[in-house]
Structure formats: structure tokens, C-alpha cells
Amino acid sequence: MRATFLPFSIPTIGEEEINEVVDSLKSGWITTGPKVKRFEEAFKSYTGAPYAVPLSSATAGLHLVMLALKLQPGDEVITTPMTFAATVSMIVQGGGTPVLADIEPGTLNIDLQAIRAKITPRTRAIVPVHFAGQPCAMNEIFALAREFGLRVIEDAAHAVGTEYRGARIGSLDSVSVFSFHPIKNITTGEGGMVATGDELLAEEISLMKFHGMNKEAWKRYESSGTPNYDIVMPGFKYNMMDLQAALGLHQLAKLDGFIAKRSELAEFYNQAFADVAEVATPQPVPYAHRHAWHLYTPLIRTEALSIDRDAFMAQLKLENIGSGLHFKAIHHHPYYRDALGIAPGELPNADYASDRILSLPLFPLMTPDDARDVVAAVKTVIARNRR
Ligand SMILES: *Cc1c(COP(=O)(O)O)cnc(C)c1O
Predict the structure, then answer these.
(1) Minimum CA distance residue for ligand 1 atom 5
(2) The domain 255-385 belongs to what CATH superfamily?
(3) Statement: the pTM of the whole predicted model exceeds 0.90
(4) Residues designated as active site
(5) Which residues line ligand 1 (CB under 6 A)?
(6) CATH assignment of 15-253, given 3.20.20.20, 2.40.50.140, 2.40.420.20, 3.40.640.10?
(7) What is the 3-state secondary structure (H, E, C) of the chain?
(8) pLDDT below 70 — which residues of the chain?
């Protein structure tokens, strides 16, 4: 067994990030300012998005995008049960009714036939989640959206650096919401970005993110600016700080290297578990893509074991291996179990995955020895608990 505990994720923060934060601290300007603007520009050029709006989190981005849809009571938004609560909670906070469509069993992305089956005259939008960093079948989702006149909002929290048929997520003809939470592929501490080709949407979100103020605050303090401002709507306080963008600028520059490391580790896991019947490894989507490998999420076939997934994770921890849960299906949470009224067996693939999924350690600073320790611990726990 390993001598020290291996967490399932650690952010990769270098001297460049540290020096840039210190530079902001010493500069006299720590909140939204020139570094946020630079990060926005760098993000646009990396993703190919025509417009990008830096925010305090992806949750904030989802909230503002949902509000911009101007949903009426009873309006429905279709999304996946295999996501973080924020995806669904922000549909509710935007005034919509979330509708869950089942996932594909191998990729755990939302299933196209399941989306189609859930479309009603009240459906307004589809929110695909690029699960673990693997792109959803966007051409088909856009075709469905065109057929029924729906908006598409990509929850791209896992998908910074993901490519779909040669195009980066963020550059497709929709709106994408990215997260820079510490476990995501790049981090700003907390932070998020909305990327879109829709200029009016980008303007509306920019206005909403900072008090509904018609100018960004920092420009008022520039020599050319004037201190006066107008409030043109009741807005929020969802702006990103320069302290956060200082991290993001260097993280973004390192992203392709991070993804290369994550891909190597994921490939090692895939091979190591290929002949372990109790481990169902994540399956690739059948079209051209680059997987950003935000998470490595096998399903543990607990039907072959005498313990459940939670006990499996507890035993991994005793072997000094951390793991994460991404995700317990939305309709398994008490609030949504009661609020959504999903019938038993309505989302069988999500139910199956929800009870068996775990996230194994995956982060760029992991060594090959760390990965070997993870595989050894998983095999040990399986051998100990085989039926
Ligand atoms: C992390 C995550 C979010 C929320 O991101 P924050 O930046 O923490 O608000 C939303 N959706 C998914 C799928 C996520 O994994």
C-alpha cells in the first residue's frame, strides 16, 4: 500500500501563476481590470469564440444565460441527470422546469433519442453537458434544436480544450459555459466564462454580471473615464477579479500540456483495466474529437462484488487512494427526487451509472508510480470483495 494519501485532484500552480498574482497584489488593482480583459482575449483566441464574458463561476454563467432566455412559468429545459447540481439548479433559478433525458451507457453523455422523446410544445432549450471532457454529438443536437426551434446551451464546465470534429468547444454556434473551479482542467480559484458567437447575448450577460451598470467599473477610474455611471437594469455581482485572471492567464497557456498529461494517464488506466471484468472503463464517442480528460470515471460493476460503490470508495481511501463522485444522478438528490417526479426506471442508464461511478485520481502532477498505485489499490479492493 502507498505510504501517503493520493487525492483525486490537485491543481497545478506554477511560479508564473504565483508571480502574476503577487504582481496584481502589488499593483494597487486587484478586482476586475486589465488582467481580466487580457484573460478574456486569450480565452477567445484559444477557443475561437467570437465573444467571451469572464465571471465569478460557471454557476453564475448558467444563471445569467438561463435568465437571458426569459423563460415563462412552465417552460421546459432538457438536460442530463449525469451532471453537477448547478446545471439543473440554474434552470430552476432561471424560471424554467428542468426535464431530464437519459444518458448513453458508455460515454455517459446525454442520449439523442432520449432528448427527442422529452421534447414537448413547452420545450425551450437543450443543455448538453460534455461529460468528463468528451464532446456531445453537437451536430445532431443542433439539428434537433433547429427542428423544434430550441436554444442550445452547452454546459462546458468539463470541456475547456475539448474539440468536436476539429472545432474547440466555445466556437460552436451556441453558448458555452466554462468553469475554472480548482478541480477543473484550468483554475482561477473560483471562476467561469461564457463563450458565444451571439453578440447581443454577450452584451446582456456583461450588463447583468455587474449591477446592470452601463460601464465596467475599472474603466471609470482610467484617466479617460468619468466617475459617473447609470444603472440600466437590476443586475448581479458575478464579475471575475484580476487576482483570478492572473491565475487563468498562465493556466490557459499551459492547458494543452495539461491535457496531454491527463490523456497519457487516462490511456494507462484504460489499458490497466482492460482485462478487469469488474471495471467498466469510459467509452469514446464515435466521431473525431479531443477528449479533455477532466475526469476518469469508470463504473465499478458492484453486481460482481459484495460491497456497494460507497464502501468501495471507503476501502480505496484505506489504501491511501482518494476518489471523487461525479456524479450522483440529479434525480437521486432529495430535492430533485421530490420536485421532478421521475418515475422509477425512467432513466435506467443514469440509475445504473449513478450507483457505480467513481472518479479516480487524474491530474497533471501525477506520476506513473501514482497511477500504478491507483490501479493496484482498485485491484486489491476488487479481489477482497469479489462475490
Ligand atoms: C463544476 C461544474 C459546474 C459549476 O462550476 P462552478 O464554476 O463551480 O460554478 C457546472 N456544471 C458542471 C457539469 C460542473 O462539473
Answers:
(1) 58
(2) Aspartate Aminotransferase, domain 1 (3.90.1150.10)
(3) yes
(4) 184
(5) 57-59, 83-84, 86-87, 129, 155, 157-158, 179, 181, 192
(6) 3.40.640.10
(7) CCCCCECCCCCCCCHHHHHHHHHHHHHCCCCCCHHHHHHHHHHHHHHCCCEEEEECCHHHHHHHHHHHCCCCCCCEEEECCCCCHHHHHHHHHCCCEEEECCECCCCCCECHHHHHHHCCCCEEEEECECHHHCCCCHHHHHHHHHHHCCEEEEECCCCCCCEECCEECCCCCCEEEEECCCCCCCCCCCCEEEEECCHHHHHHHHHHHECCECCCHHHHCCCCCCCCCCECCCCCECECCHHHHHHHHHHHHHHHHHHHHHHHHHHHHHHHHCCCCCEECCCCCCCCEECCCCCECCEECHHHECCCHHHHHHHHHHCCECCECCCCCHHHCHHHHHHHCCCCCCCHHHHHHHHHECEECCCCCCCHHHHHHHHHHHHHHHHHHEC
(8) 215-224
